[in-house]
Design brief:
The chain has a single domain (about 15-159), classed as Alpha-Beta Complex (Nucleoside Triphosphate Pyrophosphohydrolase). It is of the alpha+beta class. The protein starts with a strand and ends with a helix. The chain has helices at about 75-85, 145-159; strands at about 5, 20-25, 25-30, 35-40, 45-50, 60, 65, 90-100, 105-115, 120, 125-135. It is built from 2 helices and 11 strands, in the order E-E-E-E-E-E-E-H-E-E-E-E-H. It is about 15% helix and about 35% strand.
Length: about 160
């Protein structure tokens, strides 16, 4: 595993998209939906250990967050991954998307690869750690429930 560097003072401003959306299937973050980036290099993926105070804190997932008005899922995933983890957008090759759509809210996981492994940077208070994790070791981690549910399909799509 490769550990991230950390800037404990990092904090991002909130926007109108940063609200809870309630519906018949539960409560979800982001008035325009949300997106995250699952980035791989060779046989490892970049994962985020969520801060204890956050939704499903203490679990591992991917950098992501609320989409802004007019923003595509790919744009949102790349922006959020850059803000939260220092993922260099110019180095990312997008491969695919997996969409979880409830009608009133959706989450898109953007799958991507990078040619060179970079050192992630904890860019805000939502992350405790960022690590490159061997794909074979992901199942052994305490995963965010939604990421855990989609992981088998995401893993398959990564090849």
């Amino acid at each position: 595993m490769t550990r991230a560097t950390h800037d404990p003072s990092a904090r991002r401003p909130r926007g109108p998209e940063d609200v809870w959306v309630d519906g018949p299937d539960g409560r979800f973050w982001g008035s325009f939906g949300a997106a995250g980036l699952l980035v791989a290099h060779d046989d490892a993926v970049l994962l985020q250990l969520r801060a204890e105070w956050s939704h499903f804190g203490g679990t591992w997932g991917i950098p992501g967050g609320a989409r802004k008005s007019g923003e595509t899922a790919e744009q949102a995933a790349l922006r959020e991954a850059d803000e939260e983890a220092g993922v260099p957008p110019e180095s990312v090759r997008v491969l695919d998307e997996l969409v979880f759509d409830l009608g009133y809210w959706s989450y898109t996981t953007v799958l991507a690869r990078v040619g060179e492994r970079f050192t992630p940077i904890v860019g805000d208070a939502e992350s405790l750690r960022l690590d490159w994790v061997d794909i074979a070791a992901v199942d052994a981690l305490p995963l965010h429930p939604s990421f855990a549910a989609s992981w088998p399909e995401l893993r398959r799509r990564l090849g």
